[in-house]
Amino acid sequence: MTPILVAQIVLLLFVFFMLLNSAAIMVYVERKVAALLQQRMGPTLVGPRGLLQPLADVIKLMFKEELRPKAADAFLFTLAPIISVTAAFAAFAVVPFGAETTFFGLLPHPISLQVADVNVAVLVIFAVASMGVYGIVLAGWSSNSKYSLLGGLRSSAQMISYELSYGLALGAVLLLGNSMSLTDLVNAQAGAWFGILPRWYIFLQPVGFAIFFIAGIAETNRAPFDFPEAEQELVAGYHTEYSSMRFSMFFMAEYINMVTVSAVATDLFLGGWHGPWLPLSLGWIWFLAKVGFLLFFYVWMRWTLPRYRYDQLMDFGWKVLLPIAVINLLATAAGVLYFAA
Amino acid sequence: MLPDQILFYVLGALAVGASLLVIGQKNPIHSVLWLIASFAGLSGLYILLDAPFVAVIQIIIYAGAIMVLFLFVVMLLNAGHEDTGEDEARPVSVHRSAIRFGALLSGVLVVELVWALVSAGTLGGVFGSTATLPPAVSSVRTIGRALFTDYAFAFEVTSILILVAMVGAVVLARREATHPAQATDTGARLPGPAEPALRVEVGDEQAERVF
Description:
By secondary structure, chain A is mainly alpha-helical.
């Protein structure tokens, strides 16, 4: 095996391991931040400062009984959580998280810190995200329960509605960077304007960033857009009938999707691993910091904003977000043409 | 055999087999899922043809957006299984003419396919390498340029066709909505895929059926 191949496999395992852990870390962060915002203590008993709480949660989930309704479609009922979690992991495969490196000279030529460098990476993320919908929709349908079905229906409608704005916001960045490779797009954001302001696309595309992040929250079914599982109306929505590890797969997929959306937003709008003070080889620290901030923002939003009403969600998606996204894309295209000429 | 050829046969078998299974299912949801599998096979074939862009677009548009819409409609209409009873009640003559028309269409399709395969054989072979394609066929720039220059007419006509279909759907939906019972509720809403009034109704229907 060539050193490059070994490095790729190590990277793959590393990303897999980190994503698994990120779900555990996010569970802890979510509970702690929620407690902070509600003036509670949060988990404190398991381990120092409650740090081992995620482990306890996992053990509890594993020892729960795995239930399946009698009238459920057995095959699809099992398949749905697998689709969800697979799509969540697969999307991160094309996300770069650091500058090109030779690992202290171990490799003959530098490779970029990502699992697969695809030249249509942005579209691959989009495609995998659209596959993830099936996990939720099928879970809702195969459970053969009215709450699950309503959750699944809501999720498919919501995803279709917000995917458009999501894609159009991406399109504006692609126009600016003139590439579909995430590595190229990140490298286009190196340096600073006037020596102070980093050349991040968020400063050129503030509207685009807002649209992307709002649509991202809707795509990951997080509050205030968590209609597929709206507890007060639908018990638990699409995963009402799920328990034990099957349930935890959905749970994990949700957190990993959050990490992916945050990582993509970091790469597209926040300059990825570029930032002041640190050398490029330590750029992954910047990347982690930015993703961490966005994830905190996610949790912050959830515990600050109440859930929308369903028709408000649809009205907002189709009548507000989509027109703004279209105008943003057209304005960006005009701007690019003007400054290129 | 070359790995490329093995992959071609595996993906081709997936695409064809899944397509056959689509029409063999009793449950429309399963049909939709097999169709997605078939699209996945096609997408793999596009990658073999060195066209990753088309492959990803295939997944996004067909396997992603359109099939989610299909699934949505099937779930919304709650088409649990095939309505065979209604078919049997219809007069046989309708069946026969429909079958004749279908047979005619499939005959035309077979002729077209044979013609395409034969002419492709003279051009460079179906399994021929991608050498006959321009090297940059995968690039988004090339596809975009071709779409807006050489194929501009076809592109625009297709767009207008889709627009007409969309306007038609809106008109039909609006006409239904002007029934006195629903006029106030759904008349003012955009024809988004989810209409709260409709959804609740269908939800109840589902509940009745299931329990």
